[in-house]
Each structure stands twice: as C-alpha cells, then as structure tokens.
Design goal:
The chain folds into three domains: 44 residues, no CATH class; 179 residues, Rossmann fold; 124 residues, NAD(P)-binding Rossmann-like Domain (Rossmann fold), CATH 3.40.50.720. The protein is built from 13 helices and 17 strands. A seven-stranded mixed sheet has the order 6-5-4-7-8-11-10. A six-stranded mixed sheet has the order 14-13-12-15-16-17. Strands 1-2-3-9 form a four-stranded antiparallel sheet, with helices on one face. The radius of gyration is 22 Å and the shape is globular. The two termini are 43 Å apart. The structure holds zinc ion. The site of zinc ion has 8 residues, from loops.
C-alpha cells in the first residue's frame, strides 16, 4: 500500500469492514442486488495524508445521486457570495479567465461570466453540462487530468487566472496527476481555489471521500506538485484553500496558525488516528449495549434522518430492525425507499407524532441542536434523543 501523494508506505489504522454505499438507497426489488465494499483508512507518516485503502469505481459511486432542490437554491446564494468574495480578494477584472473543474450545471461559473470574464467548465456529467450550455456557459464533458490539461494548453492556449474546485479535491484518486494538470494551466500570478467540508476530525468515513485532509497534509500535497498554499481558512466547517505557484504571494499568518494548531493536536502522528479508531470501536460497543438495555425494557426506538454517515454507522454497528422499529427522514425523495445494508423502510417524520416512540436515535448528529428544536413537541411530551457521536448522550 503506497501513499497516493508521496508514494511512501501507508499504515492502516481503521477498518470498518465491507459496507454498502452510505447513499445507496434501494427500491424493494434492488435489495437482492446490493453490493458492499471495503472501507479501511490509512495514514502516511511522511506527508500526513489520511486516505482510503481501496476505492469504489466512480461509475458505482455516482450512478445514483440524490438531489435536493432546496439545497440547490441555498447553494445559488452561496455561489454568488463565493464569486463576489473571490473577485474582490484576487482583484479579478473583465480580462480575467476562470476555469472550474467539476462545474456541474455552471451555477458557480455564471457569476464570473456575468461579470464579463472568460469562463470554461469541465465536468463528466452530460446532463448538467446541457443545462450549463443553455445558459451559454461552455463546458467540456470530460474528467480533468494532466493529459486533458496538456491538450487544452496546446490546442486552445488555455491559461487561467483562477481555477476553482468545489467539494471536489477529496474525491480525486489520481491526485498527483490532477495537480500536475492544475499547475500547467495556471497563469504565473494565478490562484487555485478549493473549498470542501473539513473532515480532519474524522467525523465519519465514507466511500466517496478518498482523502481526509488536514492543513498539514494539504500543504505537503501542494508542495509535492510544486505549488504553494498561501492562504487558508476554515469557516462553518468548510475549508477554503488558496494556492499559487511557489513564492508568488506572501504566505499568510492564518496558514501558520492553522498548521500550528494541528501540530498541537498531533495531526501529524499515527497515534492520533489510532486513538480515533479506538474511539469508534468504543462508540460501537457502548451504542449496542445501550440499545440492548432499552430493548430489554421494551422501549420503542426509531432512527431519525437517513443520512449517509448515519447509514455507515448503522451498518458498521450492525444496528437494523434488531433494535429499530423504523426510520424517518424529511426528504420526500428518500421516503418509500429502503436504507442501504439495513433495509429499513423510510417513513416521513409525521409517523413519530402518530406513534410516539420512546427514543429517537439521531443519525445527523452534526445538526443535533437544529433537530432538537424541530422536534421540541416530541421532547416536551417525554420523547428522548440518543446522540451517538462524538460521545453517546441521551437528552
Ligand atoms: Zn504520503
């Protein structure tokens, strides 16, 4: 096993076993066809990159994606803010050129185009590219890699002032090749902007995320590609990363502070990750113990929110209809389908109010407070919540 960044030997610290995909919701007739994949994580002591050992073929991962229209609307507002922020921070003008890798339907690029800039998107999904074309945004339907970058540079003389990748970088298996392509297309004073959810605390592991970046590992990753992370921040759990050719911009104090913080937290030590693995095993043991106890007391337990990470947790712990009566989720797209691996039928949340179970196992523990507010009536009338992570809690 070699590191995908530096090619040195990597060490496995956690194995969750063979699990179905966390967002692989099923119709009844699909249950017998369900596939499971190994989910094991390793650490590179040389460049500090945390990465999956085996990866699932992309066609299997992205064959079925769930879209939520409300998410798209809030993203549009977020996309405009991101564009405004970048234009100001990087002093972009009408003569600037912008490339977005993984541009989907162009909902981010359109704001740069409206400001008069030359834009180009690259995305393998044909359907969303069609939507982008209708808006007049040029999109190449392809996977981005070094060869494609080389062809674009040669045939179109493409060089860009800004290259964007949003919720993209932790999905790219051939990351070294990818970054070589990025470097090739970047103008001497250009900036690469990556933005993605921080998973440096290893909240939960999932098949789609090949990498679990810390700022420490990111710095090494870009250095290896002869690029430099000159600015970075973490905002509402999202990492924002600014990269250039080396020694073009002054490296900000923010970068230094983030790196120092991670060294304090020992994100550069294998033991930290081994400790995390031990904690996950402990959560499993304690959660099963708790559910067994409640079941013996004839309590009725229902799972709340068929989230991706929730599904991974249920499968890893072996929690299904042996402990849970059913599961509910707000999303109409998920209701009526079965959860991956555990095959629980997903109901609308109204069922909780009709049947009043004793406990709700919260599977979107990252938004616990919000859920508790939403379910105030249930709680006020004696219903209890089980929060599984980071530490088991009953509220
Ligand atoms: Zn490495």
């Amino acid at each position: 096993m070699k590191c995908r960044n530096c090619n040195k030997k990597i060490i496995k610290f956690l194995s969750l076993g063979k699990l179905p995909l966390g967002n692989g919701f099923l119709k009844k007739n699909e249950i017998s066809l369900e596939k499971k994949y190994d989910l094991s994580v390793s650490f590179c002591s040389n460049c500090y990159l945390v990465q999956l050992i085996k990866i699932v073929p992309p066609a299997r991962l992205y064959g079925k994606t769930f879209y939520f229209p409300s998410v798209f609307e809030s993203r549009l507002k977020e996309n405009k803010e991101t564009a405004d922020y970048l234009m100001k921070k990087l002093n972009l003008s009408k003569s600037s050129s912008v490339l977005e890798v993984g541009c989907s339907n162009g909902s981010q690029l359109q704001f740069f185009q409206k400001a008069g800039m030359k834009v180009l998107g690259i995305d393998p999904a044909v359907n969303s590219a069609k939507i982008a074309h209708k808006k007049g945004i040029p999109v190449l339907t392809n996977f981005f890699n070094y060869n494609l970058a080389k062809a674009l540079e040669k045939e179109q003389k493409l060089k860009v002032d800004l290259l964007i990748g949003i919720h993209l970088l932790n999905h790219i298996a051939e990351i070294e090749d990818f970054l070589r392509g990025v470097k090739l297309l970047l103008e001497p004073k250009g900036t690469v902007f990556f933005k993605f959810y921080s998973q440096r605390e290893l909240d939960i592991i999932q098949h789609e995320h090949i990498f679990y970046f810390s700022f420490l590992s990111l710095r090494n990753l870009f250095k290896n590609a002869n690029l430099e992370m000159y600015d970075a921040e973490i905002k509402d759990g999202i990492m924002h990363i600014f990269i250039s050719h080396p020694n073009v911009f002054h490296v900000t104090k923010r970068v230094k502070n983030l790196i120092d913080e991670e060294i304090n937290k020992k994100f550069n030590k294998l033991q930290t990750y081994q400790k995390f693995a031990k904690n996950i095993e402990k959560v499993k043991k304690n959660l099963i113990k708790l559910l067994k106890k409640l079941k013996n007391q004839r309590k009725r337990i229902v799972a709340y929110s068929a989230s991706e990470k929730g599904n991974i947790l249920l499968n890893y712990c072996g929690i299904g209809d042996n402990y849970l009566e059913y599961i509910v989720d707000m999303s109409k797209l998920k209701q009526g389908l079965y959860t991956p691996g555990t095959h629980l039928l997903i109901y609308p949340p109204q069922k909780i109010y009709q049947e009043r179970p004793d406990y709700l196992l919260i599977l979107s523990w990252n938004i616990t407070e919000k859920i508790i507010k939403q379910l105030k009536d249930y709680h006020d009338t004696g219903g209890k919540f089980i929060i599984p992570l980071p530490k088991i809690k009953i509220i």
